[in-house]
Design goal:
Blueprint lengths: L4 H37 L2 H20 L5 H16 L2
Helix pairs in contact: 1-2, 2-3
Length: 86
């Protein structure tokens, strides 16, 4: 356990940020999963609407440095191609 006040503060802050980042990453995964499910079901309208939310979540996560920017771009591109091929 930390003894110095600033170290104690850092431990609390790091735990809080880890929770926020974890929640944000889970939101990204859920949005991508919904899009993939809509594509698999063949529902183009649902796929397009869920793709918008997935793209938004991915880019927001990249902007907050939860995931790498190029990783987010790659996932968005692949999802967009999958929706387009429907």
């Amino acid at each position: 356990m930390a003894n110095i006040a600033s170290a104690k503060t850092r431990v609390k802050r790091n735990a809080k940020r880890a929770k926020i980042n974890s929640d944000r990453l889970n939101a990204v995964r859920t949005a991508v999963k919904k899009t993939r499910a809509a594509i698999a079901a063949g529902d183009k309208e649902a796929a397009e609407s869920s793709f918008k939310s997935a793209e938004s979540a991915l880019m927001r996560a990249a902007g907050k440095k939860v995931i790498h920017k190029k990783n987010a771009s790659r996932k968005v591109s692949r999802l967009a191609n999958a929706v387009k091929k429907m």
